[in-house]
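lol ok so funny story. i was supposed to be doing the assay writeup but got distracted and ended up predicting the structure for this chain instead. priorities right. anyway since i did it might as well share w the group, maybe its usefull for someone
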Amino acid sequence: MITRENGQKALGVGVIGAGMISDIYISNMISKFENLEVYSITSKHMEHAKEKAAKYGLAAVSLEEMLADPRIDMVVVLTPVGSHAELITAALNAGKHVYTEKTITDSTESAAKLLKLAAEKKLYLGSAPDTFLGSALQTARKAIEDGLLGEVTSISATANRCNDVLQTFFGFLREPGAGILFDYAVYYMTAMVSLLGPVARTAAFVRTPYPQHRNIDPKSPDFGKMMDTPNESQVSAILQFACGCTGTLQLNADSNLKDQARFFVYGTKGMLTLTDPNQFGNDVVYLANEYSEEGMRDTKPEILPPANSWSENSRGIGPSEMADAILSGRKNRANGEMAYHVLEVLEGMLQSGKDGCFVELKSGCEKPAALSD
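and the output, tada:
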């Protein structure tokens, strides 16, 4: 931990993973968040770590060197989900707080062990997505808590992707734990839980209709060859929340590359239209119920004022918010408890798709506190 000239305390950070997502994390953690001081980066592919280190003025080190560095208070894990459990375990055992990219791990069994270890070590464990801290979802949350919708009755989301493209250019999507549920539905489920609280039970139809795809990258040595793509790509799920609300989630990765996300929250006094929860900002639109005791009224869609200023790509706000929680001794918002519950919901959908039954969720979590400026 360091204290800056202005008195601001900051945690030392080491980054594990030098893939595409690392650029926005590192640049934001360096330029936007005074309570973080990024020192080093490591990667399974050290040549990539050295490139990022040169770009951002960091040290490229081995994992062992990073975990032994007394300046490092927090490790930010940006690797594919299959490596999370091993890396998080190593960091916690080295006495480091950990924030990881989504999902927390690829199974509730391994995630439970990590939460237990973090508690034993009295360390913080946080997990992406942190997009629910952005202006769009915080605006929706404020509208709900202010009573703008009346009694919230249901929530619904539909989105699409294109695996023909994605699974060619992003090989990690072909690895275990990187199907549309763990890699993409995690944004929607985290958003829903942040707005309505934990899920009580779920059921889903889950499909993998195209277990192979052709490599369409003309620059790839495997261009034109068939690739094994065993992960689920289509999900239609229903949800019952502990608060009594119901919800639906439908995702299709065998469709259009340009996301056409549709995300709604319904209440007795009106409804909200949201956008892709993989983003931090965008408009939140309120449409009041046209009928009241006074009769019909002509209402028009209303763009709600943002609840905070985090509307741009703010990846890194999760580690920064966790650093603030560590320094002030409170619970972080993008915490392991919520990440574990979301993972259990997604795992439950997979189980329901296999067994054809409702799955009762065993875990719960608190709705994270609202975040304003």
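Residues 336-355 form the longest helix (20 residues). The domain at 133-306+335-360 is CATH 3.30.360.10 (Dihydrodipicolinate Reductase; domain 2).
back to the writeup now i swear
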